[in-house]
């Protein structure tokens, strides 16, 4: 079953600015769907349209089989976790959790039970009588999640919930969010600009750019078969090398070098190669590369250099010898991504 | 606080001296003088003063005139503070919702604050004038013949209206900045948690404005008690005898019009104690004022 269906959603602001240009996404039951993209790509706007905090200019938002375009946020059966937690500073943790239920007229005993249950699940039972101001960032984050959980929503909406935490806590909370979502089995949309978060959390990734969808797919699909150069450069770190090239007679010409790949495409293309998919050696068949700066990362190292006039970065296991000034990149044909030079679409 | 070190131990005192001098000349000395003369029966023509102990105080408190003024002051302060707070808050909430032209709307509402109290009083006199006052005409429609300076309560109500009007912009500015300092995400979280806008206001917005409201309450009490002098002076100038005035105005009237310097001094000492109490309350509560985050 599909929990949420967004059909051709458009968001146009009164000044004519288009934030979301006809986006359609389905979120299945129990699925964790991540909207990822650079800032200003419309991912947060789209989430807020689902929440009801922004009007939908055109298109439909259908939640659990019901079009909710004109419903107030409080009537949509959603729960949202905000970037800066958005806790009510004048209420105790307990009251923060209970507030939404109280306003819906839930019986007192039931509120009590739900708050207790959520607090134990999130290990915040000891802080129930404290104010948000007395809690650490991680604890506040848990309270914000607790406030979402007690509502028993049809879908969770996460708006960059981890970006206010330090790196260590972020990794820990990321894992916890994933576990929690699995355990509750409730569908969720998670908005982030961090591709690592997107890859690790998602069942389904929606890559957005300039208000449009670039690609929808599983993390493996988005990484392995990027639909556009934008996706290719956005997903994966360090990003995919993208080099302008010419395809002719089944071969790819990169400057003065030619790679025989047995392709039947002709014309200008963008040649894409993931840094971790090139095998760097001292000699042999392949692309000749002038090496430059080397960055050691512990387990691996990044070798920066040039192929012809174009910059390229490849990774290498740290136990391999550091290449000399001239090296050769051995590349499998299956690891090469070709994109149309004009449209940026995969060939 | 940053701690600064001075090489010359006298330098900080020298730097403080001008301010201390101003405080001493314009505040401490007159206050001491007022306390001293409150125990004397002063000859208004700079003759001898006779020590009378607490008689000035007992005389003042016993006078029915004093009690009546005290009651009116209490009512006046309560009404002016609460009304100007309530209306200021209402306007701020509306202004906060305005999306277009908010700055011009704000400016329009703030203009009143730039009017000096005596000018406000003068405008009040005109608004409530027997012959040309539009408000008198307006109230006449409901069969209420207002007579400023003649009828005690008519004058009282006019003073209350003008004083309240004068203070609204002040409260408006503070409430608006208070409202705008509430994070948007908190308001949005509340929209998800609570459908009723009115309920959201009373359970989220209003409690978050509590520090602002409290701070304003103290300032409004101070305003109504002391700073309305100019307004009142303009409005009751011709008939100060049978018109409602505040305690501060009475100090002036008894001292400078009635030439009862001792009695006037005693009353001003009472007011001084009141200010002292207000100040202590303000400092203690503002220190302990609910700070969120």
Secondary structure: elements and pairs:
The complex is a heterodimer of chains A (347) and B (293).
Chain A: E1 2-12, E2 18-28, E3 32-36, H1 43-51, E4 58-63, E5 66-67, E6 78-81, H2 93-103, H3 108-121, H4 137-149, E7 155-159, H5 167-184, E8 187-192, H6 195-201, E9 204-209, E10 212-217, H7 219-224, H8 229-234, E11 241-248, E12 251-254, E13 257-260, E14 267-273, E15 279-281, E16 287-296, E17 300-307, E18 310-317, E19 326-330, E20 336-340
Parallel strand pairs in A: 3-8, 3-9, 6-7, 7-8
Antiparallel strand pairs in A: 1-2, 1-4, 4-5, 9-10, 11-12, 11-14, 12-13, 14-20, 15-19, 16-17, 16-19, 17-18
Helix pairs in contact in A: 2-3, 2-4
Chain B: H1 11-37, E1 40-41, E2 50-51, H2 55-62, H3 64-97, H4 102-110, H5 117-127, H6 134-140, H7 152-180, H8 184-193, H9 197-227, H10 229-236, H11 247-257, H12 261-288
Antiparallel strand pairs in B: 1-2
Reported for the largest beta sheet of chain A, the result is: 6 strands, mixed
Q: Report helical residue fraction of chain A.
A: 10-25%
Q: Beta fraction of the residues of chain A? A: 35-45%
CATH topology of chain B: MetI-like fold
Shape of chain B: globular
Main sheet properties of chain B? 2 strands, antiparallel
CATH class of chain B: Mainly Alpha
Q: What's the quaternary structure here?
A: heterodimer
Q: How would the global form of chain A be characterised?
A: elongated
Report the top-level CATH class of the largest domain in chain A.
Answer: Alpha Beta
Strand order of the largest sheet of chain A: 6-7-8-3-9-10
Secondary-structure element pattern of chain B, one letter each: HEEHHHHHHHHHHH
Distance between the termini of chain A: 33 Å
* CATH homologous superfamily annotation of the largest domain in chain A: P-loop containing nucleotide triphosphate hydrolases
In DSSP terms, counting alpha (H) and pi (I) runs of 4 or more, how many helices of chain A?
Answer: 8
**What's the total count of β strands of chain B?**
2
- Classify the secondary structure makeup of chain A into a structural class: alpha+beta
């Amino acid at each position: 079953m599909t929990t949420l269906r967004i059909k051709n959603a458009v968001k146009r602001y009164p000044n004519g600015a288009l934030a979301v240009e006809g986006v359609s996404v389905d979120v299945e039951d129990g699925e964790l769907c991540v909207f990822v993209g650079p800032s200003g790509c419309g991912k947060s706007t789209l989430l807020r349209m689902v929440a009801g905090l922004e009007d939908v200019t055109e298109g439909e938002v259908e939640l659990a089989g019901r079009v909710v375009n004109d419903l107030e946020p409080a009537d949509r059966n959603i729960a949202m976790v905000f970037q800066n937690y958005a806790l009510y500073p004048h209420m105790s943790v307990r009251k923060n959790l209970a507030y939404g239920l109280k306003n819906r007229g839930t019986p007192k005993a039931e509120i009590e039970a739900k708050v207790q249950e959520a607090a134990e699940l999130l290990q915040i039972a000891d802080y129930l009588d404290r104010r948000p101001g007395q809690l650490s960032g991680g604890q506040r984050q848990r309270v914000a999640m607790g406030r979402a959980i007690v509502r028993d929503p049809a879908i969770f909406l996460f708006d960059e919930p981890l970006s206010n935490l330090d790196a260590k806590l972020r990794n820990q909370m990321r894992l916890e969010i994933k576990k929690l979502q699995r355990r509750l089995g409730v569908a969720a949309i998670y908005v982030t600009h961090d591709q690592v978060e997107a890859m690790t959390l998602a069942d389904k990734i929606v890559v957005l750019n300039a208000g449009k969808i670039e690609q929808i797919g599983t993390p493996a699909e988005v990484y392995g078969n990027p639909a556009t150069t934008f996706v290719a450069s956005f997903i994966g770190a360090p990003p995919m090398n993208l080099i302008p090239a010419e395809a002719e007679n089944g071969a790819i010409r990169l400057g003065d070098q030619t790679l025989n790949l047995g392709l039947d495409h002709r014309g200008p293309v963008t040649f894409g190669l993931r840094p971790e998919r090139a095998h760097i050696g001292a000699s042999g068949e392949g692309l000749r590369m002038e090496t430059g700066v080397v960055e050691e990362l512990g387990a691996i190292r990044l070798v920066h250099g040039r192929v012809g006039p174009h910059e390229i970065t490849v990774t290498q296991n740290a136990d391999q010898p550091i290449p000399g000034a001239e090296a050769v990149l051995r590349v499998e044909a299956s690891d090469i991504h070709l994109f149309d030079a004009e449209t940026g679409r995969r060939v | 606080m940053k701690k600064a070190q001075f090489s010359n131990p006298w330098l900080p005192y020298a730097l403080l001296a001008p301010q201390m001098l101003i405080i001493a000349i314009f505040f401490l000395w007159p206050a001491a003088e007022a306390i001293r003369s409150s125990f004397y029966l002063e000859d208004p023509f700079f003759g001898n003063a006779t020590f009378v102990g607490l008689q000035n105080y007992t005389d003042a408190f016993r006078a029915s005139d004093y009690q009546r003024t005290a009651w009116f002051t209490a009512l006046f302060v309560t009404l002016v503070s609460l009304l100007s707070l309530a209306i200021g808050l209402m306007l701020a909430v509306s202004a906060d919702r305005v999306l277009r032209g908010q700055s011009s709307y704000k400016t329009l509402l703030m203009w009143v604050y730039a009017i000096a109290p005596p000018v406000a009083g003068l405008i009040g006199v005109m608004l409530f004038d027997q012959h040309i006052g539009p408000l008198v005409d307006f109230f006449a429609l409901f069969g209420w013949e207002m007579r400023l300076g003649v009828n005690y309560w008519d004058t009282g109500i006019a003073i209350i209206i003008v004083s309240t009007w004068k203070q609204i912009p002040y409260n408006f500015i503070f409430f608006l900045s208070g409202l705008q300092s509430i994070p948007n995400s908190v308001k949005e979280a509340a929209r998800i948690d609570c459908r009723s806008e009115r309920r959201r206001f009373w359970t989220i917005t209003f409690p978050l404005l509590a520090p602002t409201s409290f701070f304003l309450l103290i300032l409004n009490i101070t305003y109504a008690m002391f700073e309305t002098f100019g307004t009142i002076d303009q409005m009751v100038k011709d008939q100060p005898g049978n018109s409602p005035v505040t305690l501060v105005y009475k100090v002036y009237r008894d001292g400078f019009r009635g030439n009862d310097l001792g009695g006037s001094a005693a009353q001003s000492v009472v007011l001084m104690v009141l200010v002292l109490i207000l100040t202590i309350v303000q400092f203690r509560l503002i220190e302990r004022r609910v700070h969120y985050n």
